[in-house]
Design a protein that fits this description.
131 residues, Dimeric_a/b-barrel, TAT_signal, Dabb family protein, 4 helices, Dabb, Alpha-Beta Plaits, four-stranded antiparallel β-sheet, alpha+beta, single chain
Length: 131
């Protein structure tokens, strides 16, 4: 059996767990959609709970390959933005799958039912660099 470095093992393990290739063999069209939600009432536990409920429903859109719902980590470096309530990170096989997500009834219902909770949303979409 070929011995591998810890770094290689971790990289392959994480990639396998996410269902993503993290090396040269990574899907060329992988589309990443990252949304930051800023609540109108950031101190409201009820609003946090309600938005989390909505994000869990949104995670059921079938074209999403992998999703992560997060809150600000307890890190304190000066470059870290921590004023958002939730981070919504999801991966799609390609732009077409993300466009299907945008018009999917679950997504449209999420926006309709939960958009009153947030004051601002910032979206970062990215794809892999051209090789």
């Amino acid at each position: 059996m070929k011995e591998q470095s810890r770094r290689t093992f971790v990289k392959k393990s994480v990639g396998a767990g996410l269902g993503l290739g993290l090396s040269v063999g990574a899907p060329k069209e992988l589309f990443v959609h990252h949304v930051y939600f800023y609540l109108k009432n950031p101190d409201s536990r009820a609003d946090h709970a309600k938005l989390l409920e909505g994000l869990n429903k949104l995670a059921k859109v079938p074209t999403i390959r992998m999703v992560h719902i997060g809150t600000p980590a307890p890190t304190t470096r000066s470059v870290i933005e921590r004023s958002y309530a939730f981070s919504w990170l999801c991966f799609f096989d390609n732009l077409i799958e993300e466009e299907i997500y945008q018009t999917h009834p679950i997504h449209l219902k999420f926006v309709e039912e939960y958009s009153a909770l947030w004051e601002k949303v910032i979206v970062y979409d990215s794809v892999g660099p051209k090789r």
